[in-house]
Amino acid sequence: MVWSLLMKSHQAYKELPVKVSQQIFMILDKNWKSFFEAVKAYKNEPTRFTGRPKLAKGEGLNASHVMS
């Protein structure tokens, strides 16, 4: 996956267990693919949607997400 190649040098990536980082990248990959499929479907038939598809907003970082 392209995501893992881009992140290998990032400190936060290095601190995660391998299984966790792989799961995160699998979910990211699936989410991006479904977003682009939704945009494509919207361009073909916009009446099926209530608005243009948007990317999901993240929760942001807070103390409960920090790994020690």
What does this structure look like?
By secondary structure, the protein is mainly α. The chain has helices at 2-7, 11-15, 18-44. The longest helix has 27 residues, at 18-44. The radius of gyration is 16 Å and the shape is elongated. It starts with a helix and ends in a 24-residue tail after the last helix. Residues 63-68 have low confidence and may be disordered.
Outline the low-pLDDT stretches.
Answer: 63-68
Q: Sheet with the most strands?
A: none
User: What is the tally of helical segments?
Assistant: 3
- Approximately how much beta-strand content do the residues carry? under 5%
Span between termini? 26 Å
Rounded to the nearest angstrom, the radius of gyration is: 16 Å
- Structural class comes to mainly alpha
Q: Which sequence of SSEs, written as H and E, runs from N to C?
A: HHH
Descriptors for this entry?
68 residues, mainly alpha, 0% strand, disordered C terminus
List the helices and strands and how they pair.
Blueprint: H1 2-7, H2 11-15, H3 18-44
Summarize the structure.
This protein has 68 residues and is mainly alpha-helical.
